[in-house]
């Protein structure tokens, strides 16, 4: 069983990495996509908003599908669709082809994100210790790889399909082979039997604090991804070349934070790690807002990567602990708020920047991140809640316990 779990963990981590590559290749080449299809600046926001909206639909659909289909099977077939849709974005010529490719990408990403995190939560339960951050570290690494590949394509002025095709040709067969070793709850022995026996219902009011934290985390993340370059160049007076650095720094520190984050959870507990992450992230936004120059601004974005990186993985893990008998449904519902935060963050900062100032706009996600402190106790092990109103002590305390977790 240990061998099975290790192979399952490795194959799932590879899927997270591939998804990071695919998503980075899409979002970092948006200007090239806009030029290829002649998408106007007025129409571009509609195309960009359609992807997270459809991803939310895909995530909600996944909640229903997992009642009949294993999450591993959904992941096995949604990841190839994401890769082929990415290739379709690069290979099309007409606006309608772009719309179809982005729609397929969005729906498949929703299924993919939900099913990956379902498997991550169930594997963490089987391991009996915090490993969720390691999966998201793989995603961050994939994002760095994808952004680097996108830079190569842009530097050499390669057509989009030329940039995307080799990546898809390499990664598509690799994920199909790796998918053979995914591990579902029902493959994990006694843990699976315990989960199936729970029959727990997901009560949204108990999940709501985690949904708010997820939304806030992605508001912060989308602020960095969409506004860091503009902020450094227009507000802090950096060069155009230097303005590309903050997002890369953010991704690297996100990777580093997630690579060591599981150790922090095991040592200090999830509540302390989430509180620390929120405080560091808020400090990062404060430094960015008050920065007198570009180098101090980059220090702020560095802090943001270290702080925000722990929130999303721990939110998924907390949902699995809160509803151990219905973790798949809880993860699918929680995942929707990933896209809610993404949709809110960029327009919110842009509107505040135009109406007020971009320095002032950075204070808003800072305040929102601090709200996480109010809900930090939601990340602690607590009595299980059941549809019938009964409660009983939780048997697993991932991140803190007498068995060295």
UniProtKB/TrEMBL annotation:
Key words, A-Z: Membrane, Transmembrane, Transmembrane helix
SUPFAM superfamilies: MFS general substrate transporter
Membrane listed as a keyword: yes
Transmembrane segments: 12-30, 42-62, 74-92, 98-119, 131-152, 158-183, 272-295, 301-323, 330-350, 356-376
Chief place where the protein resides: membrane
Domain Major facilitator superfamily (MFS) profile: 207-405
Keyword Protein transport: no
Compositional bias of kind Basic and acidic residues: 387-397
Entry membrane topology: Multi-pass membrane protein
The protein's name: MFS transporter
